[in-house]
From TrEMBL:
Residues 412-432 are annotated as: Disordered. This is Glycosyltransferase. It holds the Pfam family Glyco_trans_1_4. InterPro entries: Glycosyltransferase_grp1.
Length: 432
């Protein structure tokens, strides 16, 4: 069939939103469909390089990239936070105009909005009046106010973000229209699922918003050799919502008998503050910050550590969790949002998000537990690895194919839910 896919973020050489956008387009073509992918020119070099490398594969002949630009003055505004929002909205309008033009000759059977994965930013493509998949998307999650001391610049990053979200949900009719006209909304966490239902979604399914190429996985789950120190890894862009100070405060509470070392990988706006944070919590000798590394180097780091310790305070689902599980790395994290919904209980210690005092203490006790009981680590790693395999792109594409068949009339969408693997560790989200 003919599929139109919208992927504002699209680059096979990157992870996160950009990697997700390209892989949804590529996997749809791998399944034998003809795909027109609307995207920006930002990832063009990586896309063209990838397509050249895979030119002999049939999917490359079935995938047509359609690059949509915005006016130069809109592009100029991208350098500021609010300019990013405006750029995206203008691009969505331009993409819809191009989609209308293409549909007159192609006659699409299905439309899929893949990225950006934000419910509030919506899509214009429901106007094509075709079977329409919206997502996976997040946007319903918020950072808990009680933990604001761990997020530098709370007003700018969280108060303003929540205000913009409220404005879009309240005054942008396109948000509600997108959700109501979508054949299905794929929600990246329970909070977003409930928000979509409250806006009038016909059908909502929980669906993890990130995946991994099969080449990322080792042939079998990695088994770490015993080590005198518990080697902890924190990996992310240094944005406020990733809450590195909370993890450092927790580690400062770990009993002195516990030998551990924390590796911090990532750079970003808060990078200059990391040395002072380490000094504040007395961790200069027990933590090392490496800054930004390549995706390949990040994979090597995941294989070289014992535990992934991460506690983002606002995330649909951090892609690092899936990467850690793919490398057989046990996880210590917070029991909320996407981490709560998808990380198997057997693969992680997930601590309650209650108060800063209780939560940091629980994180500290989790580190102590895994130090005292290293025999737990292999089983946790194996459980995470088994789940991560269900989120390799071919497996995710197979579940998407099941959904697509329902939407084009080959099965009843009212009676055929997605395969259970797409709802691991969740409560059911009934159709509206």
């Amino acid at each position: 069939m003919n599929v139109l896919l919208s992927a504002y973020g699209c680059n096979p050489r990157q992870g996160g939103e950009n990697g997700n956008g390209f892989h949804w387009a590529w996997q749809t073509a791998v399944r034998g469909h003809r795909v027109w992918c609307l995207t920006t020119t930002d990832g063009r070099a990586g896309i063209e390089e990838y397509l050249l490398e895979h030119a002999a594969e049939p999917a490359a002949t079935r995938l047509q990239m359609v690059y949509v630009d915005v006016p130069a003055w809109v592009e100029f505004l991208f350098r500021w936070q609010f300019g990013v929002y405006f750029n995206y909205m203008v691009w969505q309008y331009q993409a819809w105009r191009k989609a209308k033009e293409l549909d007159q000759t192609v006659d699409f059977n299905l439309v899929h909005h893949a990225t950006f994965g934000s419910l509030q930013f919506a899509s214009w493509l429901w106007r094509l009046k075709k079977p329409f998949i919206f997502g996976p998307v997040g946007g319903g999650q918020q950072a808990p106010v009680a933990f604001k001391r761990y997020l530098p610049g709370w007003f700018k990053t969280e108060t303003m973000r929540n205000a913009i979200s409220w404005l879009l949900l309240t005054f942008d009719p396109n948000v509600r229209q997108t959700v109501r006209h979508a054949s299905v909304v794929l929600a990246g966490n329970r909070e977003t699922a409930r928000l979509a239902e409250s806006l009038g979604a016909q059908r909502v399914e929980l669906f993890l918003d990130t995946g991994l190429p099969e080449t990322f996985f080792p042939e079998q789950v990695s088994v770490r050799a015993p080590h005198p120190e518990l080697r902890l890894l924190w990996l992310a862009r240094l944005y406020p919502r990733k809450a590195l100070p909370m993890v450092l405060e927790a580690l400062a509470q770990v009993h002195p008998r516990v030998r551990f070392h924390l590796t911090i990988i990532g750079d970003g706006p808060l990078g200059p503050l990391v040395p002072s944070w380490l000094a504040q919590y007395g961790l200069q000798e027990r933590a090392t910050w490496h800054g930004a590394v390549s995706w390949a180097e990040a994979r090597e780091a995941l294989a070289a550590h014992d535990v992934f310790l991460f506690g983002s305070l606002r995330d649909s689902f951090a892609s690092q969790f899936l990467e850690a599980m793919a490398m057989g790395l046990p996880i210590i994290t917070l029991n909320h949002q996407g981490a709560r919904d998808f990380i198997p209980a057997e693969a992680a210690i997930k601590v309650p998000v209650t108060t800063p005092t209780e939560t940091t203490a629980a994180l500290a006790r989790a580190v102590e537990r895994l130090y005292d009981h290293p025999e737990l680590l292999p089983a946790m790693g194996a459980a995470g690895f088994a789940f991560a395999r269900t989120q390799a792109w071919p497996a995710r594409a197979a579940r998407m194919a099941q959904l697509e068949e329902q939407l084009v009339g080959l099965a009843s969408p009212q009676n055929q839910p997605l395969a259970p693997a797409a709802r691991t560790q969740t409560e059911p989200v009934p159709a509206a």
